[in-house]
Design brief:
By secondary structure, the protein is an alpha+beta fold. 45% of the residues lie in helices and 12% in strands. The protein has five helices and four strands. It has a two-stranded antiparallel ribbon with strand order 1-4. A hairpin with a 2-residue loop joins strand 2 and strand 3. The longest helix is centred in the last third of the chain and has 14 residues. It starts with 14 loop residues before the first strand and ends with a helix.
């Protein structure tokens, strides 16, 4: 499938990912960042970046800071679009409504 080609040449270095990384699972304690409600596994670190930008994107400074320390690999934007589909499908399955439309729109965008 042509739309999945950005995944094929990508050499993933397995990283411990949060698995449910969005602004609702980030907080601060004593002025230090804290992550909670993880669904951790080893996978492509780009899945956390995709998730972070999906429902309520983090501030642009977060993405700039991340890129300055650990730049994303080539073709990351195309992969992020693919990686956003799974959490949308999960939300659609659990909550229906708007998420079904969002998932359908994401599939249509990927098929173009």
């Amino acid at each position: 499938m042509e739309q999945l080609k950005p995944l094929l040449p990508h050499q993933v270095q397995p990283s411990l990912v949060h698995g449910n990384f969005w602004h609702g699972n980030i907080g601060f304690s004593h002025q230090k960042p804290v992550l909670f409600s993880p669904a951790c596994y080893y996978g492509d670190r780009e899945v956390d970046i995709a998730m972070a930008s999906l429902f309520a994107p983090l501030p642009d400074d977060f993405y700039r800071g991340y890129e300055s320390i650990y730049p994303l690999a080539e073709n990351a934007p195309e992969r992020l679009d693919i990686y956003r589909l799974y959490p949308l499908l999960v939300q659609a399955n659990l909550f229906a409504g708007k998420y079904i439309r969002d998932a359908a729109e994401q599939v249509q965008a990927l098929l173009k």
